Amino acid sequence: MRPVSYSRATDVADAIAIVSADPDSAFLAGGTTEVDLMRLNVVRPGLLVDINPLPLDQIEELPDGGLRIGALARMSDVAEAPGVVERFPVIAQALVLGASPQLRDMASMGGNMLQRVRCNYFRDARSACNKREPGSGCAALEGVNRGHAILGTSKHCIATHPSDVAVALVALDAVVHIQGSHGERVIPLDDFFLLPRDTPHIEHPLEHGELIVAIEIPAQPVARRSLYLKVRDRESYEFALASAAVALRVDDGVIGDVRLALGGVGTKPWRARRAEELLVGEPAERASFARVAREELAPAVPRAMNEFKVELAQRTIVRALETAAATGGQR
Ligand SMILES: Cc1cc2nc3c(=O)[nH]c(=O)nc-3n(C[C@H](O)[C@H](O)[C@H](O)COP(=O)(O)OP(=O)(O)OC[C@H]3O[C@@H](n4cnc5c(N)ncnc54)[C@H](O)[C@@H]3O)c2cc1C
Ligand code: SF4
């Protein structure tokens, strides 16, 4: 058994100072990832700094039509906020389709961005895993890789990014506000999630002690007509095999504006920029959707057990776009 110390931060500066000063420490928000992984002996912080007393749980509609979500806002509160449901339905839907009601009541938005991969070899401290132990190898490459990624993979890691709401946020050009001992910085969420390349253990650009304080989504009229489609082995309490976050504007049958991102298939929430480029100006019909879905998945690199995801991801894109075009995102 390993002893763990616990400290409750009193304000943002205090939280940053305590964690920055101790390389063996970690922030604790809802604990639904951190405590889980401590029990599995995958992470071993000597000090947990509880950030729940910090005033970071606001969900604010900004005067310009944007939205600011505090890092400690709970998934369930964000999913139910009227400004989110009405103006950014894709975010509300992605949240409700994730985890379970009990988990969503505990889990924070900041913690969601930093949740770790669900790869079984990562979560088994005895398996080879470059993400957990750099240089040890990747047991998933030739192992059980049915749930693993087909986009953005490297020969060092093929784990899928697990978050649903991050897919919706990346589709809508969200940015993340970070505070550290050297001040504040703002990073587009799409740049925040790093590809595994040669360094799968580096998942984001945060320095030790830097705190996510908020996530901001710019004003996006197109987001009113948006939805999240999640395909998984069972209809609740399960991670995505493939998912799509879509926002769409159709003018007289022609696509005027579109945002598209994929989950369950990428090593990071996958902004489908190629598909977006090809869709604008095309008729809003199945043939266009199928064509761009094929293009987006062309670079896919499947492994022995997850080849089905190439077709599944394409079908998910087509169905999400068809539904958004037909219903305006309301399901
Ligand atoms: C059984 C199960 C099923 C799940 N299913 C889904 C699902 O379908 N879809 C989905 O998207 N998610 C799913 N999740 C993941 C869940 O959403 C995350 O565990 C949760 O969002 C993490 O938030 P938390 O507040 O509990 O984070 P914590 O566990 O407290 O922290 C997670 C990590 O983030 C760090 N951290 C937390 N807050 C901050 C901050 N503000 N700044 C800097 N670092 C911080 C912590 O140090 C830790 O490293 C599931 C989880 C479980 C256990
Ligand atoms: S896929 Fe990534 S997380 Fe899984 S075993 Fe390989 S290196 Fe580890």
Shape, per Cα inertia axes:
globular
Evaluate the radius of gyration: 20 Å
SSE order in H/E notation? EHEHEEEHHHHHHHEEHEEEEEHHH
**Considering DSSP H and I runs of 4 or more, what fraction of the residues is helical?**
25-40%
Task: Please state roughly what percent of the residues sit in beta strands, choosing from under 5%, 5-15%, 15-25%, 25-35%, 35-45% or over 45%.
Answer: 15-25%
Number of strands: 12
Biggest pleated-sheet summary: 5 strands, antiparallel
Counting DSSP H or I runs of 4 or more residues, the number of helices is: 13
The helix-and-strand class reads alpha+beta
Spans of at least 5 consecutive residues whose pLDDT stays below 50 are none
**CA distance, first residue to last residue:** 49 Å
Ligand kinds = flavin-adenine dinucleotide, iron/sulfur cluster
Average pLDDT level: 97
Strand neighbour order, sheet with most strands: 4-5-8-6-7
